[in-house]
Specification:
heterodimer, A: about 550 residues, alpha+beta, Dipeptide-binding Protein, domain 3, about 30% helix, globular, B: mainly alpha, about 75% helix, membrane (chain B), BPD_transp_1_N (chain B), MetI-like (chain B)
Amino acid sequence: MAKFSSSQLKILATAAIGGLALAGCGDSGSTQDEAAGDPQSGGTLIYASGDAEPDCLDPHYGGNYPQGLISTQYLETLFTKNEDGETVPWLAESSEVSEDGLTHTITLTDGITFHDGTPLTSEAIKANIEHLQDPDTASSTGFLAVQKVEEVELVDDLTAELHLSAPDNALEESLSMHWTAIQSPDALARDVQENCEAPIGTGPFQVDSWDREQQINLVRNEDYVLPVEDPERENDLAYLDGITWRLIPEAATRYAALQSGEVHIIDNAQPDTIQSADNANIGHLDSPRPGASNRIELNSSQAPFDDQLVREAFIRAVDVDGGIQALFFDTAPRSHSLLSSVESLGYSDDALFYRDVDEANDLLDEAGWTDRDDDDVRMKDGERLEIVMPVSTNQSVPAEQSLFEQFQAQASEVGFDMQINLLDLSSWYAALAEHNYNLVSAPYTKVGPSVLRILYHSSSIEPAPSGYFANNAQVDIPELDEILIQAEETPDGAERADLYEQAQQMVLEDFYVLPLYDQQNHFLYTADVQGMGEASAIAAPEYYNVWLTQ
Amino acid sequence: MHIITWLARRVGAAAILLWLVATVIFIAIRFIPGDPAEAIMGGPGSQASAEALEAAREQYHLNEPILVQYGLYLGKLATGDLGTSYAQHRPVAQVMAEMLPATLQLTLIALVIAWLIAFVMAAIAARSSRIGQAMGTIIEVIAAAIPHFWLGAMLIIIFSTWLGWLPAVDTGTVQGIILPAVTLAIPLSGFLAQLMRDSLLTAMNSPFALAARARGASEGQVFFRHGFRHAALPALNLTGWAVAASISGAVVVEEVFARPGLGRSLLGAVLSRDMPMVTGIALFSALIYMVVMLVVETIEAFINPAAARGDDQ
């Protein structure tokens, strides 16, 4: 059905390595001179990461974004995204879906070997899916991505059939994420700690060593085979000798190290440094993450946000545009969508989101919150109009925390008593698990619109054994559930797009969510760094084509 | 009292204190929100299955009654077993052994620098006018009160971004350790200088200094032979505290300068609810503090046996 011919696929995939077009990198043009000349080999790129040190370099384990960022350099996926946002084969050469949608046949590219010298065969697909599904792996992200795969059947050396419990048109998108990257079956058979310290994949770099709390050392894979053809490459090897992946948690230190040339690239760049880097001969790469936008979810399962009028009143009361402008400068364009701007099926409705204090007051009056207490907080039947927002200091950068504080002040003008609780990540998850929240901003990165089912299907209100649940707005609409399931199962692309649009409209129009901006993912780099701009399906920059001028 | 008996009592007291610290840590970490099983199975926000969580609870004895857990915990500690890190899946002792040298290096260098700065500040202040002394006091108070975080950031801006003399990130080079060590040393030197200046002034105006001058000793001789020796004792006494202060300061300094070390391990462990790691580092810090105090007191006891008997002056 969704069958591509092999040659068509190669062309598509070559476009992919030509680079995903990344929004907002236009202003970095000053440092990316065409005059830099031809790519040169050699040199070690020094990368400074502000993320917490990964517990494990194998992104199957857990599965968070920092693991995705680094494993993009040494692991590869079966599929990837091209510059038009289409899912195309990568380690896979082709794929085919059966009429009933229950069998995906994946054929691998021939001639690829893992860093340990073993060839990539269909056995690896089976071993990796089973590794993700093994409880001992403790996989969260990858585990959910391959949830519907019941069995992997080997057809021949390069071909495997994935048998599903229900049709899943998002499977290839799921297999384009590095949390499902393909590793050597021999390596996966090692114990957890060994695999965590040096995962073995097929990527252009490989893990050499790990100096804890300091850096992870990656070296070039001298036997790398690019799975697709690229006419611009003389050989398949990366230009860089290696990458030193430093861990520099403090944003100010990271930026100082970039300015003094101690490091070449920093991640987690903050709005103020991006602004000042503009006139400092430093390049800027804006690589918004796929999946959900950054948005505030309004918990509809309990008072006062179980009343749609109150949800709308809150959205009318706060000044999102002004706040973003003041705190993020021009680094974070406003979103009016549930999905990231890189998601082609994202639906946006800016007419729904505007500030109108009078309207907010009218809505609250209409909802019956007409009394006031001594602090001018609205009351109804003796209850105060209190709303609690736990904020994760790991996930919400300082600018975002300030934005929420502005909302707090603006909400109080119409009679809300909004409390912000700044929490570390574990306490924040605990607050959500205890349903101790009315508002929350919870990022969710996933490739493709199927993230909507994870976030808004009523089954996602059901907590995982750890208490985690993804439907923080607690949207519970049977009709929406049906649409989301249908959208995931339909083999028809146009129908899929239409269903996802309906689903997004339903959530947006009932004011369950206040979209803010894309999940921010900014990188700054020195003028020595050439060839920046390519990224994996999860928007993690790739350094395969990057080279240094000195 | 005999010095051996005295020492035995001190060691016994230290052991009891360590047990109390271990107990407080055991109780305290039970009040931290978050499920330890979740921390084991992939950290915060884990979507681990019920079976996986149950297996983790079983493996780490989290289902046992609290007193049984306490008994197991003390039993393991008594045999020197600090357990396995939830997050890193490696023995806590191994992680600590890897990180300890870096922290020791940092704190020792910082202590030396703090002593040098304090000595110079005290010497200048003790020999200057009333206004000079007042200025000295102000500088000392400010130095003692500066938060490490702010100081580190300022030093990076000045010496790394503006002047370009020193690296912002410590990658194990000689230049790399200067800024972190100075950041740790400056607040410490403020405390030490205050203490040294007071005793220095007392000593320089004391009858024995007067007698030395009368014997024809130069002002420099009086200063080094009498004043400084007298002033060093109270500051030495403070060294136990100074070591403890620099280990807690290392948490911030290691983070700011991206230096590996126990402080950074502790911060990471607290955030990821890695209980065995938190316990290990907290206990170890307490142990270091007690050992240093014991050494300092022993030295003092040898220098001045009367002090050890508690009938000082």
